[in-house]
Structure formats: C-alpha cells, structure tokens
Amino acid sequence: MRAAPVLLLGLLGLPHVGCEEKSTSAATGATSGAPAVTLVGVDLDRWTCDLIATPALISQTLGIPVRGVDSTLGSAPGTPKPCNFVAEGAAPEAWSFDFDCRDRALATAEKLFTEYTERNHALIGQFDASTGGKVFTDDAGVEQHAVAAPVEVQVGRKALDHHGQAILFVDDDTPCYARVAGPDAERRLLVAKLVAAKLTPATAPMEPRPASDLKATVPSGK
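Request: output the structure for the sequence above.
Response:
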C-alpha cells in the first residue's frame, strides 16, 4: 500500500438569487439619463460556496457521494472561508477550494508559486537524503514515499499541482487565485477545472465594482 506523507501545508485560509442581484448590475443612471453601470463581484457577507459548486456538482465530478461540511478554519481578512467537502468513497476523502480576490491577490499568487515549488523540492530532497531515494516500509508495514514533484497543469491562466495535495491557479477572467485540495492528481485537476469554469466576474468573492474596472487587473478575458 502506498501512503502519501502527511503535510501541514496551511493551504486553507488561507451559487443564489440574493447574490446575483448585487453582483450583476446596477442602473446608476436610471433617473439621470446616464448609461447604466454593470457591477461584478459579490460581497463576502453575501457570497456562498454554492455560487461555485454545490455538493451535488462536486459529487458528479468525483463520481462518488459528497457532502458539504462547515469549515473549522478562519480565513484571511478580505477572503471568504474555504469550501470543504467530504467524499464518501471506500475511505472518506477531504476536498476543498478557496479564493483570494483582494487587490494584491495576483502578486500574492506569484509568491505562492515560488514558495510552494521551493518547499516541495525541499521535502523531496530531505526524503532522498534520509532514505537514499528509496521507498521504505514503516513499522506498520506501509510503504513510505517522497511527496510528488510539483508540476504545471492547465487550469486558468497559470497553475501548479504541488506536494501531491493541491492545485494553485490564477484565474483567467477575474483578479483572483484559487486553491483546490484533494487526494489524487487526476480528480484534483477535474475539480480545479470545474472551479475555474464557475469562477466568473459575476460569482467572484470580491467587492462589487464596475465591470470596466476589471480591465485594469485582468490582462485578458477567456
């Protein structure tokens, strides 16, 4: 049996009619005769995980029953709480995604790409140094392996699958980055692509703003 190493990565923290009303448009010139201004983004106090993916949709993507669970972790100021799920396979699986759409989110994402890559390689180096790069069996008879190497994947504008546990990606039509965590690479990529497809200017957890303002923070659309 192959067992993935347990890592404390600190990956987490870091859709609704009411939300859509605020995130889609506002006729600011309705009485003055000025053109209406379309707003995008959903206030954090109105944003919910279902705007991106319901447990049923995650279940459909993973191919096994899934239930949503409340996050026991807080989130950084200005970001929503992570969205957590438990998939009821042969053994329970933890899945999650979270977002950062703050003003410096894209700059933060670039730092995380570097940090996660360096940390990932360091852990592999430590394993190789202590074992000679060989798989070993622990006292319980379970094979122990080094963490998977970081690899770029095709999600959003830029994405990295790291530590064999999560995908970090920069979205391609919002000023946000996201993190998707799950136990295996193939299905992790499927969930990340689902999250990227559902994350749009209208569903992004960020302060509502004129749609035209996104041009200054998002280089190009989808």
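The CA atoms of residues 109 and 115 lie 10 Å apart.
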